Amino acid sequence: MLIYDHRGDPIDFGESHTDLTTEFATRLAAGADVGTFLGKLPDPDPVLRKRGEYDSVLDDLTADDQVCMAIQNRKLRVLNKQDYDFSPGQAKGKDVAADAARLCDDLVADLEAINLRNVFSSMLDAPFYGLTVLELIWEPRGGKLRLADIVAKPRTWFAFDDNNRPVFCGDTYTFDTPLPPGKFVLVRHFPTFENPYGLRLLSRCLWPVAFKRGGIEFLTRFCEKFGQPWVLAYAPHNADRAARMSMAGDLASMVQDAVAVLPNGAKVELASASGKAGDLHEGYLRRWDKAISKVLTGQTLTAEMDGNGSRAASETHYSVAEDMADADQFLVTSAMNDIALAYRDVNAPASVMAPVFGYDEPEDFDAQADLDKKLHSVGVRFKKCHFSRRYGMGEDEFDLDGETGHGPADHAAYIEFAEAQDAQDVIDKAVAEIIPQAVKANAEIATQIEKIVQSAESFEDMQIMLAELLGQDAEQDELTELASRIMLNAQAFGTMAAQEEADG
Fold it and tell me: Does 169 lie in the same domain as 54?
């Protein structure tokens, strides 16, 4: 087989083209000062390097309530999905081979004795810590090496060398042993050539958590000082310093037992702090809670509603959370397929197709119903067999309105159009009813959209504010109804125009 270049000339992969089979752009060739320690690539996380910390400090962040909640919410979106399974590997267009089916059955049987929920949870730690290292524990049984357990090992025991290959270094960090094949599976979150350790979301929460903890300490002191009412006493005008100090001591005792003996003529009042200083500190804490939620879950509204937010904004935030869940689900799928590949390499020749892991997504009947509704609004009329195939309903379980013609609503609309003298009168009437409302709404919303675009600090903020604006003015059902009216008028106009042309 020959390979040709862009001019059509054959490429000779001889000694003159050996550079094509070797890596050219390397750290050594680039002259980069990576500062390796005993042949291991240092952790390039910018936040940890600036603070001089190790990734072990990230475990302390999980003590924060907002961090803990965000981690649980994100992981549970995937952990609660129970419809998954392995299927035998097969070549495209071919049947499943017997040896591939047996290999898949063996793997599934081994995994039944393993708590996969804990394994998945360890895999889903990768977005927060950048890396999860899973060790495969094997045991001989029945003439084969069977998978006995899958254990997540401390990530601090592992590093990467100059060639981005994982090595075991332990807590002492004084040796680097290459990982044996078939023993470890690495789950990494957005790894790159410069950062094979993966992107750590928790390290981006170091400063928000630090500022939040400082704010909580200050707010606690503020509440201790100004949250309780003050006891104010007015001493008699002729009281000397000793008498005033005695009154102060009595008032201090009064805080404990509510009993005080004061001289004649003294006056006591209870005063409370007023103003919005406390609200300022509460807003300061909410600011960092939202920053943490934005880093860990990609949005804030599903975690911090506070009684605010429109339905449209909530749906926008929920969509972002679902996108994150899909990405995490893909992370689990890739890791399980790596385990299946290692299982094949240990127990079967390379010619046998490895099992394939995947989630079985339930059919979205709501989306299908919305699609059917939109198709019906533009004139599509379904038969009973459509609902039987799509929704699993027996044809004897339901009837369709107007099976031999148009439904009642459509029929009434056609009668209304038939009473008009001219097709142009029909369309003019429809335009007169619909267009003024659209123009008025468009003029009002255009001003508000312009203000949102100018005030938004980021694309995400602009998207959320636009969703809130549109959600307040028109819900999806209202927009669908308006579109249906326009399509129905247009359809009727075309029918009458065609009829007039035929009669003429």
Answer: yes
